[in-house]
Design goal:
With 212 residues, this protein is mostly helical. The protein contains eleven helices and no strands. The radius of gyration is 20 Å and the shape is flat.
């Protein structure tokens, strides 16, 4: 018999619940209701809540639009990381799952594989390539977490969060206070762009060292 639903349809419906009502609303029962079927039908596709959460992560990653590779590894690595960041930001309620769940689906590997391929074109030594991959991936996920899942930024804009951090730091922590003023004048997008470019510039120095 032909399956009533595809795995992609299940994952998309689960992500829709998280987007609309938050992680706490996700369950086999609410998913079944969203699909217009009974809970036992859902168990034909996913074994438990953990598997359901992994599908949500896969659905988030599947929406990342990867750029076409070029001959410029640094341009490609930036474009891939930027696409990943924007894909994660599009689903703020799912960020805790993105941080804690790994997806073993082929879809989940696509973005990571593209990033590794771009770094491979930098002709880095193997261990440098691994470290660079982890550094870029960590930067992307960390930036999304800091903006959308952090206790000082949840539900507020970045400038407001920076102002409140500065007011708490006050004269006791003058360096934090001074930097918060800069943060108030910098958009999230500008900050991410500058940080990612600085990181990739650092990776590029490892490439030049190899050639000496």
């Amino acid at each position: 018999m032909r399956a009533r639903f595809t795995v992609d349809e299940i994952a998309t419906a689960a992500l829709g619940i998280v987007d609309e009502s938050g992680l706490g609303a996700l369950s086999m029962r609410t998913l079944a209701a969203a699909l217009g079927t009974g809970p036992m039908t859902v168990y034909n596709y996913v074994a438990d809540k953990e598997g359901l959460e992994e599908l949500v992560v896969a659905a988030v990653v599947a929406q990342v639009r990867l750029p076409t590779p070029t001959d410029d590894w640094q341009h490609d690595a930036y474009a891939i990381a930027d696409a990943m960041w924007r894909g994660i930001r599009a689903h703020p309620a799912a960020i805790p799952l993105v941080l804690t769940r790994r997806t073993l689906s082929a879809t989940g590997f696509a973005a990571a594989d593209a990033l590794i391929a771009a770094l491979g074109r930098a002709e880095l030594p193997d261990r440098d390539r691994l470290a660079a991959f982890h550094a870029v991936l960590g930067f992307v996920v960390g930036a999304a977490q800091a903006e959308l899942a952090g206790p000082l930024t949840r539900g507020r804009d970045a400038a407001d969060a920076a102002a409140r951090i500065g007011s708490v730091a006050g004269t006791t922590y003058p360096h934090i206070d001074a930097l918060s003023v800069v943060a108030m004048q910098t958009t999230v997008e500008e900050d991410f762009d500058r940080g990612l470019r600085m990181l990739l510039d650092g990776v590029a120095t490892r490439r030049s060292r190899k050639r000496r």
